[in-house]
Amino acid sequence: MKKPDIPINEIARLQALHHLDLLDSEPEERFDRLTRMAKRMFQVPIALVTLFDGERQWFKSCFGVNISETSRDISFCGHAISDVKTLVVPNTLADERFFDNPFVTDDPKVRFYAGAPIKTPSGFAIGTLCILDTVPRIFHPEDVEMLEDMARMVEREIAAIQLATMDELTAVSNRRGFYLIAEHSLSLCLRVKSPATIAIFDLNKFKEINDTYGHAEGDKVLMVFARELQRFFRESDLVARLGGDEFGVLLLNTRPVQLEPILAKFDLELQRINTEQVLNYEITYSVGLATFNPAQPQTIHQLVEDADEQMYRNKGQ
Question: 15 or 288: whose pLDDT is higher?
Fold first, then answer.
């Protein structure tokens, strides 16, 4: 087993990492969403966002293993952050750096690894987005590009930490965060020729609720609706409050026809909430849908505009 080399800019690299205040922080949906996406897209059992402190590798997001950190000396990703390109190990048993690594010889018996470095806005490699499998794999150049694109999405999230991309009231993405993530997600859909659907929701008679019952009650409605959107849609779907009483959901690998029965069930769930909470008003909404077609791609702004127009037509019916 070969220990990872220490980068020549290690002191400055650590300073940049510590400045972000990410180490040992709580899990965050913005990163977990991307590891779930990587896990599903590459069909692997393990996907991680790793950060490298002086002596350890810590997992900011982790799916597939039940530990939160490892020694840096035995890490695969320690080798990746010292390289300018994505590290791919098709078969760990055939690689002298890893064949006797404890994560190869013992559980989870890693046989394949691919890790793309993630960097701070100032260019320091602080960790990786990596995927691991328990069987050897062939990783094609287009797979490398896709993993690197997703690593850039992690970098955008790191850069956006101080740009307030989350809506404080509802704890979902705000408009800025939605457009940042959606833009990268659609570029991935274009590459793999996969469809996506944008759903734009607008609460009905929300101004009346605010005017009649006060802004505190209006805020409660927004929080309930955002909570139900997050609970009802898949964990990999991007839910955002776009402003006021308007919400958006981006669903990858989904067509509108697949969404119709889901929306019907969502209506029933809102009806249940309206009945159980014995409110003096009902929480209802209008929705519009737009489809991303990789054969005739549109920008996220065009898709939102199309879905918005359909939503207002539905609201007027």
Answer: 288
DSSP 295: T
- Residue among 122, 155, 198, 139 at smallest CA distance from 34: 155
Contact (CB, 8 A) for 9 and 17: no
| Alpha-carbon gap, residue 135 to 172, rounded angstroms | 36
For residue 160, is pLDDT > 70?
Answer: yes
- pLDDT per residue over 222-272, tens digit each? 999 999 998 888 877 889 999 999 999 999 888 889 988 989 999 999 999
Decide if 58 is inside a domain.
Answer: yes
Q: Is the dihedral of CA 234, 86, 119, 58 positive or negative?
A: positive
**Domain of 120: which CATH number?**
3.30.450.40
Structural domain boundaries enclosing 25 = 10-140
Please tell me whether residues 193 and 124 are part of one structural domain: no
Q: Which two three-digit tokens encode residue 131? A: 């995927």
Could you tell me if 112 and 182 lie in one domain? no
Longest alpha-carbon distance in the chain: 71
Q: Are residues 136 and 183 in the same domain?
A: no
The reply to whether 117 falls in a domain is yes
Domain CATH code at residue 237? 3.30.70.270
Helix, strand, coil tally for the chain in percent (to 5): 45, 20, 35
Going from the C-alpha of 89 to that of each of 14, 76, 108, 111, the distances in angstroms are: 26, 9, 16, 8
The CA distance from 141 to 79, in Å, is 20
Q: Where are the alpha helices (DSSP H) in the chain?
A: 10-20, 29-42, 77-80, 102-105, 141-160, 175-192, 206-213, 215-232, 256-276, 300-315
Which residues are identified as catalytic?
A: 245
Number of domains making up the chain: 2
